[in-house]
Amino acid sequence: MNFLKNMLAALVALIIFSVVGFFIILGVFSALSAEKPVEVEANSVLHLKLDRPIDEVEQQNPLEELFPVAPEILGLVQVKEAIAKAKSDDNIKGIYLDAPILMAGIATVEELRQALIDFKSEGKFVVSYGEFYTEGAYYLASVADKIYLHPEGSLEINGLAANLAFFKGMFDKLEIEPQVFRVGDFKSAVEPFIREDMSEENRTQLRSLLNSVNDQMMSNMAKSRNMSLEQVQEISSKMLVRNPQDAKELAMVDDLLYLDQVKDQLKELVGTGEEDELEMISYSNYRKSYSSYKSSRNKVAVIVASGDIVPGKGDMDNVGSDKFAKEIRKARENDDIKAIVMRINSPGGSFIASDVMWRELKLASEVKPVIASMSDVAASGGYYLAMACDTIMAQPNTITGSIGIFSIIFNAQGFLNNKLGVTTDEVATGEISTLYTMSRPLSEEQKRIIQKDTDEGYETFVTKAAEGRGMSVDDIKAIASGRVWSGLQALDNGLIDQLGGIDDAIALAAEKAGVADDYKVRYYPEKKPFLEQLLSDLEGEAKTKFMKEELSDLYPYLRQYEKVKNLRGLQARLPFELRLE
């Protein structure tokens, strides 16, 4: 019996060792192959195919080459770096922009747009082509010298809209009562649980936000297309582009072509003969043609906080306060790091977790420059982080503000009793021992206690915001109450200092630290070791893929439910699920 057990254990160990060894060898070969430089031919065109989700920093899927389990994430930093390298590369004559859908937030699109405008400043061309264009994709494509559309394609130019889901009817049927505690007329994160439609306050702030972002997009598109703002606004508001011919007649595209015809146009631009092959290099291959390494003892640390703010370590998809507080502390204590850029792309989350990181940012700002760089969203808890920094920068279409907090406790007594047949009873040592129970309604005294905690949390938020912005508490309260603003509006009301992207924030940080002529950039948190990342990706991707296949269109609601489960304690969170694309 022992012999069989030992043999089985040895067999299992051998299998595990073989699998692990295979992946280690795979990692070594991948690393070696990645080191091979790619030669860029003369008169080449960079094929910028943006067909995958774009996040802040690129995270390579370890299995991408062998097993395409899930789409690789493109990094905004790496894409912009490639565009900047191509600008100074004599072998690159132009960019072929291939981004019909563009899975990115509107502020991310703005950064890419500015990078392409900078690329064109060297006299190089940008040509865009698509079988169809979404609103965000066209906004990026509008900077191109030529925009081509498939003769049977489509172009979406009809303005922005926000569509919110409300769950009150569902809770009523399930006999679950959301007990809500909030501060601020505009703190509408709880509205989906207690209403069947938007409040007037929420409708007001959404309309204002969408108009601000849309006006800025229309203005930039008009400038790029050499059209009047009124023309573009009319085309958008009335959706005058209904088919490809409309797009051409209204000058939203330059011509209706097939792909082979577009390639002929590219050949003409680079001076290649009709019978010769067009030298096109992909984004992934182009990245292998250069090194981004820079030698310097002076570092600017960019700490990328992307996702919901949660207590503890968190994971790859959120901002865990313990992990990020540690990263900020390490950056503060590292003498080689001369400045810190806090890159924020978060709708907020846990109030206490936000405050934990705020404290570390505050301590860091006392010894070295700390710049906040807002991405698509830096609202509520995301803004809480920014207000501890020396300078706050955002894009004109960044979603920010939302200074306010709330808490919510679900009374599931009716659901338990009437739907499941479950009853509860309790014994307690004190009058308030069951403060956060879900098995019965809260007493009036319990409600007063929780509301008082919420009020005090709000006062803490606005007081620290006032301190960080050099404003009075009353002035902050006038623009707080949970209201969201665009970056352009936030600049006007004093919530941010200036407009700009991640590169602008890094340059400002280096300048303030006195190392503008000699520094290198490092991004944190650093990537996990290959094998650890591989196993983590396998587990996460398998789970996500399974849930998406099983739930299909209901999958987004599962994600919303998972977030609801984490609404513990005071929340500093954006008042709605909103991503402008």
Describe the structure.
The protein is of the alpha/beta class. It folds into 2 domains: 38-158 and 239-287, 2-enoyl-CoA Hydratase, Chain A, domain 1; 299-573, 2-enoyl-CoA Hydratase, Chain A, domain 1, CATH 3.90.226.10. It is built from 21 helices and 22 strands. The strands form 6 sheets. Strands 10, 13, 15, 16, 17, 19, 20 and 21 form an 8-stranded mixed β-sheet that branches. Strand 4 (92-98), helix 3 (106-120) and strand 5 form a beta-alpha-beta unit. It is globular, with a radius of gyration of 26 Å. The mean pLDDT is 87.
Structure described in brief:
With about 575 residues, this protein is an alpha/beta fold.
Chart the SSEs and their pairings:
Blueprint: H1 2-35, E1 44-49, E2 54-55, E3 74-75, H2 76-88, E4 92-98, H3 106-120, E5 125-133, H4 135-141, E6 146-155, H5 168-174, E7 177-182, H6 191-194, H7 200-224, H8 229-237, H9 244-249, E8 255-256, H10 259-270, E9 280-282, H11 283-287, E10 299-306, E11 308-310, E12 318-320, H12 321-333, E13 337-346, E14 348-350, H13 351-365, E15 370-379, H14 381-386, E16 391-394, E17 399-401, E18 406-411, H15 413-419, H16 444-469, H17 473-478, E19 484-486, H18 487-493, E20 498-499, H19 502-513, E21 520-524, H20 530-551, H21 555-565, E22 571-573
Parallel strand pairs: 1-4, 1-9, 2-3, 4-5, 5-6, 6-8, 10-13, 10-21, 11-12, 13-15, 15-16, 15-17, 16-20
Antiparallel strand pairs: 7-18, 14-22, 17-19
Helix pairs in contact: 2-3, 3-4, 7-8, 12-13
